Amino acid sequence: MPPRGVRPPGPGGFSFIELMVVLAILSFAFTYAVLHLDGATGEAKLSAAARQVGSSIEFLKGQAVQSHTPLELHIHLETGQWESVIPLRPADAQEDRRTQEEIIVTEPVALPRNIRFAGVQLDAGTVTTSGTVIVTFSPLGEMTPNGFMVRLVSDEIADPDAAQFSVEVNGLTGTVDYLPGEAPFEQVVRGDSF
After folding, report:
1. How do residues 127-155 score in pLDDT, each as one tens digit?
2. Which of 14, 21, 40, 69 is the most buried (most CB within 10 A)?
3. Residues 25-53: tens digit of each pLDDT
């Protein structure tokens, strides 16, 4: 007589124990697959990275006004990182200026893997593609440069237009817009005529 819970093999299907073993194996395989999938498409990652950059800009602008302290956003184009900094205050003596240091408010934030800065566009003809771009937010709500666009590119998206995303900061209103694709720089900045 077969042990209890075990059926002799036959055309009747699976026993309860066999079914549980198969379900356990499938659930383990599904869990393993979910843990090793990235969970987001390239376009979703690019959009999320752009929103992270834009949120940092909006936060620093508001924080500068609220704290009555000028703040800077340092965008490191080659490394794909940015950080918040309290800039040096003007000193009276030349010696004091040499001993002052900037205070880093946040640790550098990095872009996700396969996403990089294509550049920062300061006006219709000027795009900075290397080095560090410094955006200064004053306690009065102003910013320098007056209007700019941060351009991001994803290396994992094949379509060249879908692989680009821009964060536009309007110099007149201070609003931050998120523009998929290759967006034109259409805002009026200091020095342009209406």
Report:
1. 899 999 999 999 998 888 888 999 999 99
2. 69
3. 888 788 766 655 555 678 888 999 999 99
∠ CA(35), CA(41), CA(42), 5° rounding? 120
Give the CATH number for residue 154: 3.55.40.10
Neighbours of 53 (CB within 10 A): 22
And the tokens for 25?
């194996």
The answer to whether the beta carbons of residues 78 and 116 sit under 8 Å apart is no
Cα–Cα distance for residue pair 86/103, rounded to 1 Å? 5
What global pTM score does this model have? 0.70
SS3 25: helix
User: How many domains is the chain built from?
Assistant: 1
The residue range of the domain holding 109 is 42-180
Residue 73 placed within a domain: yes
Backbone angles phi, psi at 141, to 5 degrees: 95, 0
